[in-house]
Amino acid sequence: MTDVSPDIRDRLIVALDYPNVGAAEALVWQLGDAVSFYKVGLELTVGGGLDLAADLIDAGKKVFLDLKMHDIGNTVEKATAAAAERGVSLLTVHAYPQTMAAAARGAKGSALQVLGVTVLTSYDEADLAAAGYAQGVTETVRRRAIQAQEAGIAGVICAPTDAAMVRAATSPDFQIVTPGVRPAGSAAGDQKRFATPADAMAAGANRIVVGRPITGAADPSAAARSILEELAKAAG
Ligand SMILES: O=c1ccn([C@@H]2O[C@H](COP(=O)(O)O)[C@@H](O)[C@H]2O)c(=O)[nH]1
């Protein structure tokens, strides 16, 4: 593989969706220097992932703690401050104005970037309507991205198919991180709003999150390298 720059490498976040630390560590070991950014989400957190997150940070990797926090302001503020203390790079909260404002207070003065989860990439129009939202996916994502910017957090999580619209509605330094990324030919699974790595970047995503296309591949290392090459090509 052609060597990719550190900047391109930092744009790929690999989701460590495993039930225990041992399985996650095995993947990190396998991927080696090719991957610099890992996501610890709900499944691994329950399986002891916070200790692994600390080890990854100590080893020079970046960590995205995808906890999708949503609670009263005091709790969100203190939990965000605790994540900042741990040296985590990215943290998610639900994109509700009160929640995002509390997280912004908790992250203040730290390097932690808080991202608001707009509309899950596993939701389509019918899922959003069933959850009681009258506005469609695009309008809900747009409104939440603007509210995220107003709340003073770093950016949002949205689908790659929303990224161009969010980029147009927010300032150039607003961070757009997109899960729901599928290399051509890979299975969508439960993702309903998804696109390829190159299309996500072209639409304005700063970073992409990829789980199963790497963790479920016969050769995870080759899968990650292929995605990095696609990102490098898309960046020109
Ligand atoms: O809207 C969202 C928010 C978070 N995720 C998380 O990203 C990864 C995607 O994993 P894949 O295996 O590549 O589908 C996963 O950890 C989700 O919890 C998301 O998919 N959509």
UniProtKB/TrEMBL annotation:
Boundaries of every Orotidine 5'-phosphate decarboxylase domain copy: 11-227
Active site feature: 66, 68, 71
Name by which UniProt lists this protein: Orotidine 5'-phosphate decarboxylase
Recorded metabolic or biological pathway in which this protein acts: Pyrimidine metabolism; UMP biosynthesis via de novo pathway; UMP from orotate: step 2/2
Any GO molecular function: orotidine-5'-phosphate decarboxylase activity
Pfam families noted in UniProt: OMPdecase
Chemical reaction(s) catalysed: orotidine 5'-phosphate + H(+) = UMP + CO2
GO CC terms, sorted: cytosol
Function noted in UniProt: Catalyzes the decarboxylation of orotidine 5'-monophosphate (OMP) to uridine 5'-monophosphate (UMP).
Gene3D superfamilies noted in UniProt: Aldolase class I (3.20.20.70)
Membership in a protein family: Belongs to the OMP decarboxylase family. Type 1 subfamily.
UniProt keyword list: Decarboxylase, Lyase, Pyrimidine biosynthesis
Enzyme class: lyase
Domain of life, per lineage: Bacteria
GO terms classed as biological process: 'de novo' pyrimidine nucleobase biosynthetic process; 'de novo' UMP biosynthetic process
Binding residues annotated for substrate, in chain numbering: 17, 39, 66-75, 121, 182, 191, 211-212
Subunit structure and binding partners: Homodimer.
Assigned EC number: 4.1.1.23
